[in-house]
């Protein structure tokens, strides 16, 4: 079976491409002309150059029975509102229309827990929760919500689409790296003297990839499935890293007002003056809300694996070291 996959040069997509090849799928990967192909090195993947918004995208998809639409633009900068909408919302609309035109039998659309939102009191939420659009912090979350609405609209028009909502993946091939990968790297480089009092749901990226395939095989059309595992505070995650590496975890937290103030100055005052901002204001605002999720539906209905987060962290550390992101003394 031939699978058409977007986003294979990124973190989740690279892990998914490897799993599909391992399971005997022929993989055709949509890659932007200027994208790095480092995550696809030595993989038996058919690469087609193009963009999510290409008007002739259906021609590139033709011949594939299934589609995994993983690609998305990720940014927490407020200035990126237009590019987020163009890629995540209009791009998803175009990809799904192209899949329909190309005769794709089933699509797995990669949304995010960002589209679901959080409980105002930090309580754990599942797929039935939905924060109002206006309460989603930042343009990235809003764009993922709107993109998910595109998928739901396509389902109403008769398209067979399953939606998956990964939480925070950890593991190898985090080439960019993601914000979580950046935390791991800062820890390894001993550049994290303090931590922020926040919490997230974490999952092994290999389990996220497997969850995509399970959604294809077992998911119900139009349903959303949270691909997550363990809810941890950032301090608990750092403590696990300390156990793995033998390095000391930070013991003191940063008062909430400090990063918020720095981010506001960075993005609202210095950035317009030409200084590249380094702390996204929306990222700091997000961190003030614990983002805890319940993935039991995916575990129950799909058989989503629940690899320990410590294993995922060890795999991430090993990959970053092997790829020379960090020097080991």
How is the secondary structure organized here?
Layout: E1 2-6, H1 11-22, E2 26-31, E3 46-49, H2 57-61, E4 66-69, H3 81-102, E5 106-110, H4 139-156, E6 161-166, E7 168-170, H5 179-188, E8 194-195, E9 199-204, H6 205-218, E10 224-227, E11 230-233, H7 234-245, E12 252-253, H8 257-270, H9 281-287, H10 296-302, H11 309-322
Parallel strand pairs: 1-2, 1-4, 2-3, 4-5, 5-6, 6-10, 7-9, 8-12
Antiparallel strand pairs: 9-11
Helix pairs in contact: 1-6, 3-4, 5-11
What does this structure look like?
GO terms for molecular function: aldehyde dehydrogenase (NAD+) activity. One of its GO terms (cellular component) is cytoplasm. Pfam families: Epimerase. Residues 4-228 form the NAD-dependent epimerase/dehydratase domain. This is Dihydroflavonol 4-reductase. This protein is 41% helix and 16% strand. It contains eleven helices and twelve strands. It has helices spanning 11-22, 57-61, 81-102, 139-156, 179-188, 205-218, 234-245, 257-270, 281-287, 296-302, 309-322, and strands at residues 2-6, 26-31, 46-49, 66-69, 106-110, 161-166, 168-170, 194-195, 199-204, 224-227, 230-233, 252-253. The chain has a seven-stranded parallel beta sheet with strand order 3-2-1-4-5-6-10, with helices on both faces. A three-stranded mixed beta sheet has the order 7-9-11. The protein has a two-stranded parallel sheet with strand order 8-12. With 329 residues, the chain is an alpha/beta fold. The N and C termini lie far apart (46 Å). Helix 4 links the parallel strand 5 (106-110) and strand 6. It has a domain at 2-175 and 202-231 and 292-307: Rossmann fold (3-Layer(aba) Sandwich). Helix 1 (11-22) packs across helix 6 (205-218).
């Amino acid at each position: 079976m031939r699978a058409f996959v977007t986003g294979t040069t990124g973190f989740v997509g690279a892990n998914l491409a490897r799993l599909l090849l391992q399971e005997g799928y022929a993989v055709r990967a949509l890659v932007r002309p200027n994208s790095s192909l480092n995550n696809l090195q030595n993989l038996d993947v058919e690469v087609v150059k193009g963009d999510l918004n290409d008007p002739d995208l259906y021609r590139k998809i033709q011949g594939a029975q299934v589609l995994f639409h993983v690609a998305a633009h990720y940014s927490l900068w407020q200035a990126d509102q237009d590019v987020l909408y163009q890629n995540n919302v209009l791009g998803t609309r175009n990809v799904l229309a192209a899949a329909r035109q190309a005769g794709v039998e089933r699509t797995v659309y990669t949304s995010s827990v960002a589209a679901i939102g959080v409980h105002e009191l930090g309580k754990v939420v599942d797929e039935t929760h939905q924060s109002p659009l206006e309460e989603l912090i930042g343009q990235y979350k809003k764009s993922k919500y709107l993109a998910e609405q595109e998928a739901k609209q396509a389902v109403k028009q008769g398209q067979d689409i399953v939606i998956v909502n990964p939480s925070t993946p950890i593991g190898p091939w985090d080439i960019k790296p993601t914000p979580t990968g950046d935390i791991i790297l800062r820890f390894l480089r001993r550049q994290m003297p303090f931590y922020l009092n926040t919490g997230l749901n974490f999952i092994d990226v290999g389990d996220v990839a497997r969850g995509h395939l399970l959604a294809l095989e077992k998911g119900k059309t139009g349903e959303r499935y949270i691909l997550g595992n363990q809810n941890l505070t950032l301090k608990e995650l750092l403590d696990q890293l300390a156990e793995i590496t033998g390095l000391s975890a930070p013991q003191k937290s940063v008062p909430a007002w400090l990063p918020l103030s720095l981010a506001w100055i960075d993005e609202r005052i210095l950035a317009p003056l030409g200084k590249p901002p380094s702390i996204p204001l929306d990222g700091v605002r997000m961190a003030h809300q614990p983002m805890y999720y319940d993935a039991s539906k995916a575990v129950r209905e799909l058989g989503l694996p629940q690899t320990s987060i410590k294993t995922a962290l060890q795999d991430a550390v090993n990959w970053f070291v092997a790829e020379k992101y960090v020097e080991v003394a």
